[in-house]
Amino acid sequence: MSLSSVAQPARVHCPPLDTRYQVETPEGIDLLLRPAGLVPRALAFAIDLAIRGLALLLLFVVLGLLGQFGMGLASILLFLLTWWYMVLFEVFNQGRSPGKQLLGLRVVHDDGTPVGWAASLTRNLLRFVDILPFAYTLGILSCLNHPAFKRLGDIAAGTLVVYRDTLPARPNLPQAEALRAPFALSLSEQRALLGFAERAEQLSSARRAELAAILAEPLQVPAEQAEQRLHGIARGLLGPT
Amino acid sequence: MKQSLFENRHRAEWHAFAGQLEALERGKADRQQCQGFAAAYRRLCQHLALAGARGYSNHLIEQLQNLVLRGHQQFYRHRSPLGTQLIGFVLSGFPRLVRAEWRCVLAAGLLFFGSLLGMGVLVYLFPELIYSLVDPEQVASMEQMYDPDARRLGRFGERDSGDDWLMFGFYIMNNIGIAFQTFASGLLLGLGSLFFLLFNGLMIGAVAGHLTQIGYGQTFWSFVIGHGAFELTAIALAGAAGLRLGWALLAPGRLPRSEALRLAAGRSVRLIGGVILFLLLAAFIEAYWSSMTLASPTLKYAVGAGLWLLVLAYLLLAGRGAYAPD
Question: Which of these three, B48, B75, B102, is where a domain ends?
Answer without folding.
Answer: B75
